[in-house]
Design brief:
single chain, 303 residues, alpha/beta, eight-stranded parallel beta barrel, 37% helix
Length: 303
């Protein structure tokens, strides 16, 4: 049985899980504020849980200005020895406009340490070809298809293209309208399709909280990232959907504590990360469930 460590150590199950999407909806934090906030996350006791700073192709100019103003490590000419624990600013490049954005965005991102590329497309094969042609070999990428193209036979076709490539899949688990949230069965189809192929993936949107719930203000049905983690080891669609439907945090926390080291490796080799506009919120949920020992309080202003 896996023993979740205490004393502020980030358990393996949650390391690098939370990509910093502070500048994306619904957070919409200005880049000039998001950069120093991210730098603080990377210097905090929970830094091992934090992934790269996600930035859209159209905002790289703002990012460069914020980096220059704040002397953030990772920019050309910046002193990498200052703050943030000597860690350079790692940027995940988000390209909602498809492959046509790839070449100019890579050029614009040259001053930063590129941690990955997330490419939205309607043609998986075309996206893979563009990434093969233009992406540096040491930079990982994820390919996102619209959910309407991942229903029925479309899901298998897309996953079969990606499994023969070096790239992850990316799935949208929420948004600003109710229709942006897939139900348990739809998400389970994606998770198990990836699991059956050994295809890694990341998720984005709507996963700020650990446990599945209904948002009291919007009425939207939100998946929990802890649900998704536990469902990631399932290859049976009905079993995965049942895990995704669980709303009892104590049930999920007990299941997480019972995971073996091998199961954790399987889970994190599958579900690699998700974008969240808050870093404090998911960590706070884990602490409340007893899955994370926090040596200092987590505040919303830490976002």
């Amino acid at each position: 049985m896996n023993a979740l460590p205490s004393g502020g150590v980030i358990p393996e199950l949650f390391r690098g899980l939370f990509d910093d999407a502070a500048v994306f909806p619904p957070g919409n934090l200005p880049v000039a504020e998001a950069v120093p906030a991210h730098r603080a996350h990377r210097a905090a006791w929970y830094a091992e849980a934090v992934g790269p700073f996600l930035c859209g192709a159209g905002r790289l100019g703002e990012l460069a200005a914020a980096v220059s103003a704040g002397s953030v490590p990772g920019a050309a000419g910046a002193d990498d020895s200052v703050v943030a624990g000597d860690r350079p600013l790692k940027v995940g490049l988000v390209l909602p406009g498809g492959s046509i954005e790839l070449a100019p965005a890579l050029a614009a991102a040259a001053p930063f340490e590129l941690a990955g590329v997330e490419l939205a497309t309607r043609d998986a094969a075309e996206a893979v070809a563009a990434l093969d042609r233009l992406l540096p070999p040491d930079v990982p990428a994820a390919v996102e298809l619209p959910r309407e193209l991942l229903r029925g036979d479309g899901l298998d076709a897309v996953l079969d293209v990606l499994v023969d490539s070096p790239y992850r899949a990316k799935f949208r688990t929420g948004g600003l309208v109710a229709e942006a949230f897939p139900d348990e069965d739809e998400l389970a189809a994606f998770l198990t399709g990836c699991a059956q192929r050994g295809l890694p993936y990341k998720c984005t949107a709507g996963l700020h909280n650990a446990v599945r719930h209904t948002d009291p203000e919007t009425g939207f049905e939100h998946h929990g990232f802890l649900n998704v983690l536990l469902a990631a080891q399932e290859t049976d669609r009905a079993a995965a959907a049942a895990v995704l439907a669980e709303r009892d945090g104590e049930v999920l926390a007990k299941a997480a504590r019972a995971l073996t080291d091998r199961q954790i490796v399987v889970i994190r080799n599958s579900f690699t990360a998700f974008g969240t506009c808050s870093i404090a919120e998911p960590l706070g949920d884990l602490a409340a469930l007893g899955l994370l020992s926090s040596p200092s309080p987590l505040h919303q202003e830490d976002r």
